[in-house]
Inverse folding.
């Protein structure tokens, strides 16, 4: 990513003491597998690092007809400020479910989800909506852009959701400038006014990343972000994520089933049989 | 904010939803048109009914009436005070009219009303409906020279001028027939076919011929109480004003144009047979000269009423009290000031003249025409209900299409929720969508309806030209144009009702959308 990053920061809400301690030794494109050096179990994380989000013995099951399928059976996971964490596991191992729970899209049957030191799973729906809107960005395998809106409008949607018509109109210019900068940063400035169907898969994912970053979230949750892309585009998206993590200290949790992609992250945890396995 | 944006984009991109709104549009347009025409119709009708009937009617149960109307009027004025604008005494009797047409008598049953020339015009719009412009200003029972119904193309020659011509022609015809009879030795022939037609072919042939064709002595003695001889060249019998449909028939000629056919016209003489004031009533008959025609365009009145001077009718029927010598009338018509409370006034009079002591029936014009007005009101209500059902059907169409759109948009709803949109926000997208469709549909419907009402006669002409059938047949209705009346209250009620139905139809799909589980919605493919 060669585009300039001057003019905005992702770090503005971060706590000062922890910010220096996070940068991975290999830099953003370092091939050193951070997971080897990171603790195998999150409970053993260094005390100096601040936790952004935590899952505490989380249980979740689904009903398929008469059968109860237990997806998560007591997952414990801490996500530290500024890290790039990969959750790896086979299909059906519950990694997407865990991501949804961390993103407060769903609530666990048992156990707790904490965000920024605060328990959030028992908040009312409106409180969780607000948290999601302001502090958590999400990207998905199938990009999930709104087909009726242009790339720029898609990026602006989180700002529109969080504000009343009146307030949004007042702040419209600021938001628009920020959205344009974000599109610029992900390399889509020439595609601002294109609809999703006029964009390629890689471009759609870049627009989705820009959208996820609009409200300066503390945490970016990526659900198989490269799963639907060819190798070239997938690498480029990963590079973008690494840049964001390195240059802007953005905390990223990425779910994938591909070990080679997971190896790009600082730390990897494996989900298997509904529990976190060290790897 | 995103709600408005998305709602607008959905409106622009989902044309199928707009199609569902067409039924709302049509329903609203039809409701506005039907209400405007019904309201126009009933207003026109009420205006005419009220114009003919005056406001309050005070009538006796008996045909011989009640004596001393002046005392009654004084009592009424005392009861109602300043509310009374005008009062008049009248006599209503059923009668049989005989109109001579081509040597035969055309009989009809009518109601004869004896009216007071001076005061009758104060209580009703009677004069307005007369054909002669002078009579419209001041009612008169004297035959006028000419000038009836100016501007009416097929109205025949009428008045003194016509009467003299007719009488001269009849006399000449009679003289020729006498000569013919003398030449052939006293036998009386039927009128020969070669005799030239009278000045107007529609003219009644001969009032001096008795029905069986036997020539009567030329100066015939008038019937009833009028014992003196009348020379039809110079004199007239007492005047009578006939309802136009009593003596005419509306039809179409071979070219399809609407024509009126007159059996008699001002200047002709007719015979009335009516009951006298005795007990039991006995029939009496008298000759009258038609002096004008009366056209209220309410066929019920135009085909049933004839007006004669009050004093003539009272004399003829012997309507006076032998003891006091005071004349009697059958009813008193009362006109109240505009805006006066009719029912309250009626009830006051009913208290003054309780039904168990006085044989009078006191009613407002609305009471008298109650069934007719109620029928029109009921028709309007039923039509409104039926048409609103159409809009409700449209509402179910919107419901179906909205449910489809919610299914189609399930993933987008999941996306919005993952970005932090709440239940309320998702719901309001679809509610606003419903409002948008309702506003568009009802708005277009309102414009269409108002345009249609404004150009309704042109539209009727075009439809008539297309279908070859006249939609608003003037031989059936006595209106030249379709009356309409737009009530802003009704229009806004219809439009708001339609929008409300569209919104209600979108509530269920909107709730369904709002309750979608975000994870399920995101997984939906």
């Amino acid at each position: 990513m060669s585009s300039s990053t001057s003019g905005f920061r992702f770090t503005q809400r971060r706590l000062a003491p922890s910010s220096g301690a996070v940068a991975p030794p290999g830099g953003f494109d370092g091939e050193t597998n951070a997971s080897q050096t990171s603790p195998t179990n999150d409970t053993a994380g260094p005390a100096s690092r601040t936790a952004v989000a935590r899952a505490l013995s989380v249980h979740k099951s689904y009903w398929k007809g008469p059968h109860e399928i237990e997806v998560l059976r007591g997952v414990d996971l801490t996500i530290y400020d500024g890290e790039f964490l990969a959750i790896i596991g086979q299909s059906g191992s519950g990694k997407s479910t865990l991501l949804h729970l961390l993103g407060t899209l769903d609530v666990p049957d048992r156990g707790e989800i904490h965000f920024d030191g605060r328990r959030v799973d028992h908040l009312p729906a409106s409180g969780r909506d607000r948290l999601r809107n302001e502090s958590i960005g999400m990207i998905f395998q199938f990009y999930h852009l709104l087909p009726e809106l242009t790339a720029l409008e898609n990026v602006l949607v989180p700002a529109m959701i969080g504000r009343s018509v009146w307030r949004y109109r007042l702040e419209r210019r600021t938001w628009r400038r920020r959205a344009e900068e974000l599109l610029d940063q992900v390399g889509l400035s020439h595609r601002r006014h294109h609809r999703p169907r006029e964009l390629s898969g890689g471009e759609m994912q870049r627009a989705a990343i820009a959208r996820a970053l609009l409200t300066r979230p503390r945490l970016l949750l990526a659900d198989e972000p490269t799963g639907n892309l060819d190798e070239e585009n997938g690498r480029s998206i990963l590079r973008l994520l690494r840049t964001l993590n390195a240059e802007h200290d953005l905390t990223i949790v990425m779910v994938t089933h591909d070990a080679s992609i997971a190896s790009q992250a600082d730390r990897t945890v494996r989900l298997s049989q509904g529990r976190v396995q060290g790897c | 904010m995103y709600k408005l944006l998305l709602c607008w984009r959905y409106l622009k991109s989902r044309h199928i939803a707009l199609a569902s709104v067409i039924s709302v549009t049509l329903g609203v347009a039809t409701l506005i048109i039907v209400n405007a025409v019904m309201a126009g119709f009933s207003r026109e009708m009420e205006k005419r009914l009220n114009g003919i009937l005056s406001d309050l009617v005070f009538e006796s149960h008996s045909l011989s009436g009640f004596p001393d109307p002046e005392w009654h009027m004084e009592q009424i004025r005392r009861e109602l005070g300043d509310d009374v604008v005008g009062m008049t005494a009248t006599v209503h009797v059923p009668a049989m009219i005989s109109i001579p047409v081509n040597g035969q008598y055309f009989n009809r049953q009518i109601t004869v009303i004896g009216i007071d020339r001076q005061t009758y015009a104060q209580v009703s719009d009677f004069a307005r409906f007369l054909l002669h412009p002078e009579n419209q200003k001041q009612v008169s029972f004297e035959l006028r020279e000419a000038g009836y119904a100016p501007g009416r193309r097929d109205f025949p020659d009428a008045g003194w001028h016509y009467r003299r011509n007719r009488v001269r022609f009849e006399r000449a015809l009679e003289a020729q027939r006498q000569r013919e009879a003398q030449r052939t030795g006293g036998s009386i022939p039927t009128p020969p076919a070669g005799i030239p037609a009278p000045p107007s072919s529609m003219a009644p042939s001969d009032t001096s011929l008795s029905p069986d064709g036997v020539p009567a002595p030329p100066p015939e003695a008038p019937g009833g109480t009028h014992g003196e001889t009348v020379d039809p060249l110079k004199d007239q019998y007492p005047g009578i004003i006939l309802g136009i449909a009593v003596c005419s028939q509306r039809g179409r000629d071979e070219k399809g144009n609407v024509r009126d056919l007159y059996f008699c016209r001002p200047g002709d003489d007719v015979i009335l047979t009516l009951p006298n004031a005795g007990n039991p009533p006995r029939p009496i008959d008298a000759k009258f000269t038609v002096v004008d025609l009366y056209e209220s365009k309410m066929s019920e009145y135009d085909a049933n009423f004839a007006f004669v001077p009050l004093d003539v009718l009272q004399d003829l029927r012997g309507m006076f009290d032998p003891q006091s010598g005071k004349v009697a009338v059958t009813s008193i018509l009362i006109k109240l000031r505009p805006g006066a409370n009719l029912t309250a006034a009626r009830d006051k009079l009913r208290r003054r003249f309780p039904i168990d002591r006085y044989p009078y029936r006191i009613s407002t014009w609305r009471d008298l025409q109650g069934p007719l007005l109620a029928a029109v009101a009921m028709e309007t209500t039923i039509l409104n209900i039926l048409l609103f059902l159409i809009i409700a059907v449209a509402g179910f169409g919107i419901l179906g299409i909205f449910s489809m759109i919610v299914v189609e948009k399930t993933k987008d709803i999941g996306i919005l929720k993952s970005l932090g949109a709440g239940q309320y926000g998702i719901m309001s997208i679809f509610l606003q969508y419903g409002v948008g469709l309702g506003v568009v549909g009802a708005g277009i419907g309102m414009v269409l309806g108002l345009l249609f009402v404004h150009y309704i006669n042109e539209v009727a002409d075009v439809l008539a030209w297309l279908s070859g059938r006249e939609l608003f047949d003037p031989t059936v209705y006595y209106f030249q144009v379709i009356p309409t009346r737009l009530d802003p209250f009704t229009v806004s009620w219809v439009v708001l009702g339609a929008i409300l139905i569209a919104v209600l139809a979108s509530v269920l799909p909107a709730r369904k959308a709002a309750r979608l589980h975000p994870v399920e919605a995101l997984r939906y493919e």
In short: The two ends of chain A are 31 Å apart (CA to CA).
